[in-house]
Amino acid sequence: MDGGETQIVTFARHTDVALESRAHCLELIEGSDFGRIFVVGSAPVTLGRTSPADIVLNDSEVSRAHCKVVVLNDLLVVTDLGSTNGTFLDGVQVTEPTPVPVGGVLRIGRQLLKHEWRTEREILQHHEFERELRKANAYALALLPPPVTEGPIRSEWLFEPCSKLGGDAFGYGPLGDSQFMFYMMDVSGHGAGAAMHSVTVMNLLRQRAVPGADMTRPEEVLRTLNTMFPMEDHAGMYFTMWYGVYDKASRELRFASAGHHPAYLIPPGRPEAIALRTRNGPVGADPETTYRADRVLVPPESSIYLFSDGVFEIVTKEGLQWGLGDFVPRLTGPGALVTGECQRLYKEVRGLSQASSLEDDFSLLVLNFD
Amino acid sequence: MDIQHSDVGDVRKVVLAGRLDTAGVDLIETRFGASIVPAGKNTVVDLSQVTFLASMGIRMLIATNRSLSRKGGKIALYGASPAVREVIDTVALTELIPLADNEVEAIGIVAG
Question: How far does the CA of residue A285 sit from the closest CA of chain B (Å)?
Answer without folding.
Answer: 7
